Amino acid sequence: MIGDTPSDLLAARNAGVSFLGYARDAGRADRLRQAGAEAVVGSLEGVLGVLGGA
């Protein structure tokens, strides 16, 4: 699951799926990491490339 809030991270955990945090700025990235996100990116460009959308 890809999300940009700590509640998205919690939803992913509750669903038992992996989580990729998306943060457009340092403040959001910090909040996601403080909530326990292990992977946080500032752009989804690479993800879209892997999925064939870029």
TrEMBL record:
Q: Please name one Pfam family that this protein belongs to.
A: Hydrolase_like
Q: Which InterPro entries match?
A: HAD-like_sf, HAD_sf
Q: Which UniProt keywords apply?
A: Hydrolase
> Which GO molecular function annotation, any one, does this entry have?
hydrolase activity
- Stated name of the protein: Phosphoglycolate phosphatase-like HAD superfamily hydrolase
Q: Which organism is it from?
A: Streptomyces candidus
